[in-house]
Structures are given as structure tokens and as C-alpha cells.
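Good morning,

Both structures are done.
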Amino acid sequence: MPTRTTVADWTITASGDTATFTHAASSGAPRVQDGRGLAVAETDLAALDKALGEVMKLPVYWLARARREAGAGDAAVWSEPRFDPVDEFVHLTGPCRLDEPAAGFAIDLVHLRGLRIRIASFRAAGAHR
């Protein structure tokens, strides 16, 4: 049974080993390169960070982690975020994929921790300013 969580403009559906993220607004929605990475509007980064944290509290997240090796979820699978002042998006390379039916993107639950580490570090450093 899928678990649905909503934080700000983000809706996350977690089921099995996957979390699917959809964004409420079409403008400013994340840009995804299937299997290569994503770009998130800088103004949505705090809400995405919070959404990741909420999903990581769910039992489905911990069950998925228990099924994988101990190193799963390492931040190294994600690049350091890069802010592009032209489009005002933060770009990350990492293991996400398009999820066409939901018009969003999907990430294996075990990789949420690494993404959250990268985003939190970026935000704490004020790297976008």
C-alpha cells in the first residue's frame, strides 16, 4: 500500500523501494534527465529538503534501507549541487528517473539520504548566494 506525504508544493508517494515526487506547479517544476539527475528551482529547495526528511521518517523508508547494503544512501551517488544564476535552478547529478504517469520523478528510497545530505549542505553553506 503506497504512503502519500505532502509538504508545501511537493507530493511524495512511497511504495516498495521507490519514492515518486510530483510538484504542484507546472512553472518551476523540477527538470529531470532520466537516470542522470535533476534541477530544482532554488525557491523550492527548502521545501524539497523538508519533504525528503518527512519521507525518511516513514517505515517504508527504513524497510527499504534494511533490504540494501550498509553503504546504500551515501551522498557520493549525488554530485555537489550547482546553482545556475541564469535559470535560478540548483542542478544535481544522481540516480533519479522520470515517472511519466505522475508527471514527476522517482528515486530509490535508499538514495534519499544522500540527496538530503547534499541539499542540506548546500543550503547551510549559502552556496547559492
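Second structure follows.
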Amino acid sequence: MIKINFKDDLVYTSGNAIGIKYNEKVFTKLKIKANKAYIPSVKEYSWKIGK
């Protein structure tokens, strides 16, 4: 299941359908803007998504 919320220019996702593994933990609460995904609880890191 995935929950998606749109606010301003960002897409907020949660649920176990999409996750990023970082420091041996899987984070499923993400902020997506354009072609980058951010983990709100991890500052100053982003991941490129798409092509």
C-alpha cells in the first residue's frame, strides 16, 4: 500500500511500496520533488530517481 499527498511543489509518500535503504534502515516516508527523493528525517541527502 502507498499513501500519496500533494502539497505545494512536493509529493509526500508513505507506506511499504517505496523505500530507500540508508545506513542499514529502510525509510518509507519520502518527499519527492522533480527527479529527487528526500528522506525528511535525514538532512542534506537526496537520491536521483528516474532516468
